């Protein structure tokens, strides 16, 4: 078995010391059943871990799968942490593992202060200069970067293809075998296509659930998703092959990320004799849409969803100006993270620390044209949360729309904390609340924790609000969440056990830390 996480490198110099080392670590895909306080989501479930502090997360990993961990501080997430936790576990014999992980904030992760980020948001160039676009894509932490393109330029000895530390990731396989690759993406912005020259891939797992196998030439993967694919090493054994990843969904200039599939006994560093094959067209939305639809639960491993839901929340995704700043909004509410974490605020009755006006359940369906630029002049910011009935069944419909640019709509990978959900369907255009639910897949829907909503399309899923706590649900594109593309769900707060004092100390929770 080999592991191939994909990440994205961005090299950025922003004035003097904009970074501090506050952090929190989120265990992405782990539901934290019974330990909602260790979800590692600053502002939701804990206060930040300060420089020099040690914070201990303890939680049960209740089923096998491929999961990620990353920083989750403010709205600025996963700056540095790129990791895949994978283990081969016997099929559906659910092992219980207790993980005890020590985090030292100062050495492991670098976050950016919220105040500083807000300053940057005021600076128009920061948003419009393409500063978000990555300069390089990394596979297994390795990639290539044109030193002269760095600003300021980097020394060639730091960034040099002949430096062995800068060689591409190479993984060795034996001809004539089958390999399972666990693939995950923790990009800050980009949607990716992943491919292995000359090899098909059979998709068998997504977000920790078995998939009815299907074959792809390129795997589309969005930030926060994980997949397992099977690869048969049935090609000419006399050479090595390129593994490539490239940006899709945006017309980016980022060069493809490269790695090498090394057929034993060729030298692992020997370059394949070919030019790395290019990926699919960045704007081929149909292929990406079709891959999403193709992902079904594996026969014999179907968990059936409840046949009906108790509540339907439609979330319109828009980009617009709010108070003079470019923001992303959900039903015209651009989300802000509170300073007192919700979990503590709700348990300790500090309800004045966030807005108590419930966020909207939908948008002006009859009059809203999702295909054109809309001003959404009534958009506001809020840190209000959706309060769900414990054990109720909730349907979420993500509705995409035009951005502030004409004829443009982006792909948003939405990630739900604390739960897996059944993916009921994807559609193009505006979701029809009468007829589209009739087409929902209730037979073999895959369970996931991250799904894309495709340009000008919609995505519907169902989940059971059966995990007491407060959970983030947001676009996994770092800048989008930062600019308001998220919501929060609460359920069963009265069932949450005693909170550990280690999560406290910020906002209005200081007084709870009695000496
Ligand atoms: Cu992997 Cu809230 O994110
Ligand atoms: Cu987004």
From TrEMBL:
The keyword Hydrolase is assigned to this record: no
Substrates-to-products reaction catalysed: 4 L-ascorbate + O2 = 4 monodehydro-L-ascorbate radical + 2 H2O
First-tier enzyme category under EC: oxidoreductase
EC number(s) recorded for this UniProt protein: 1.10.3.3
GO cellular component: extracellular region
Cofactors named for this entry: Cu cation
Domain Plastocyanin-like: 20-75, 133-265, 368-492
Protein localization: Secreted
Keywords for this protein: Copper, Disulfide bond, Glycoprotein, Metal-binding, Oxidoreductase, Repeat, Secreted
GO MF annotations, alphabetized: copper ion binding; L-ascorbate oxidase activity
Disulfide bond in keyword set: yes
CDD domains referenced in this protein's UniProt entry, alphabetically: CuRO_3_AAO
Gene3D superfamilies hit by this protein: Cupredoxins - blue copper proteins
PANTHER family found in the cross-reference section: L-ASCORBATE OXIDASE, MULTI-COPPER OXIDASE
Record-stated family: Belongs to the multicopper oxidase family.
Quaternary structure (record): Dimer.
UniProt name for this protein: L-ascorbate oxidase
Organism: Salix purpurea
């Amino acid at each position: 078995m080999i592991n191939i996480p994909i990440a994205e490198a961005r090299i950025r110099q922003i004035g003097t010391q904009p970074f501090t080392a506050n952090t929190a670590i989120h265990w992405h895909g782990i539901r934290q059943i019974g330990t909602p306080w260790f979800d590692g989501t600053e502002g939701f479930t804990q206060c930040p871990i300060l420089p020099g502090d040690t914070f201990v997360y303890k939680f049960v990993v209740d089923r096998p799968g491929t999961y990620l961990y990353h920083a989750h501080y403010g709205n600025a997430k996963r700056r540095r942490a790129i990791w895949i936790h994978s283990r081969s576990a016997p099929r559906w014999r659910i092992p219980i593992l207790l993980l005890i992980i020590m985090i030292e904030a100062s050495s492991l992760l670098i976050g950016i202060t919220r105040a500083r980020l807000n300053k940057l948001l005021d600076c128009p160039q920061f948003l419009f200069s393409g500063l978000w676009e990555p300069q390089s894509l990394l596979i297994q932490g390795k990639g290539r970067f044109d030193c002269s393109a760095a600003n300021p330029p980097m020394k060639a000895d730091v960034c040099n293809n002949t430096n062995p530390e800068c060689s591409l990731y190479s993984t060795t396989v034996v001809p004539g075998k089958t390999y399972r690759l666990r693939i995950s993406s923790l990009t800050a912005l980009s949607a990716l296509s992943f491919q292995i020259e000359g090899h098909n891939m059979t998709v068998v797992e997504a977000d920790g659930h078995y998939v009815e196998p299907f074959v792809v030439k390129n795997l589309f993967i969005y930030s926060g998703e994980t997949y397992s694919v099977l690869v048969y090493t049935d090609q000419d054994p006399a050479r090595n092959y390129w593994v490539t990843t490239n940006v899709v969904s945006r017309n980016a200039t980022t060069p493809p990320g490269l790695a090498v599939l090394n057929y034993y006994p060729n030298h692992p560093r020997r370059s394949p004799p070919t030019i790395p094959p290019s990926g699919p067209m960045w704007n081929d939305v149909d292929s990406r849409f079709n891959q999403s639809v193709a992902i079904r639960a594996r026969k014999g491993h179907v968990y059936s969803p409840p046949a009906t839901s108790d509540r339907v929340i439609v979330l319109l995704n828009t980009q617009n100006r709010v108070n003079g700043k470019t923001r992303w909004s959900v039903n015209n509410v651009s989300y802000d993270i509170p300073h007192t974490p919700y979990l503590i605020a709700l348990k300790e009755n500090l309800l004045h620390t966030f807005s108590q006006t419930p966020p909207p359940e939908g948008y002006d369906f009859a009059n809203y044209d999702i295909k054109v630029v809309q001003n959404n002049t009534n958009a506001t910011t809020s840190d209000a949360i959706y309060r769900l009935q414990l054990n109720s069944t909730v349907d979420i419909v993500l509705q995409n729309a035009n951005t502030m640019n004409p004829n443009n709509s982006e792909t948003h990978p939405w990630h739900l904390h604390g739960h897996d959900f059944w993916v009921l369907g994807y559609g193009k255009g505006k979701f029809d609340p009468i007829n589209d639910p009739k087409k929902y897949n209730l037979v073999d829907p895959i369970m996931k924790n991250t799904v894309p909503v495709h340009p000008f399309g919609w995505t519907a899923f169902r989940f059971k609000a059966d995990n007491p706590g407060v959970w983030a649900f947001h676009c996994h594109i770092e800048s989008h969440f930062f600019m308001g593309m998220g919501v929060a769900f609460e359920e069963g707060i009265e069932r949450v056990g005693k909170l550990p004092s280690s999560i406290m100390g910020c906002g209005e929770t200081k007084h709870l830390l009695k000496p």
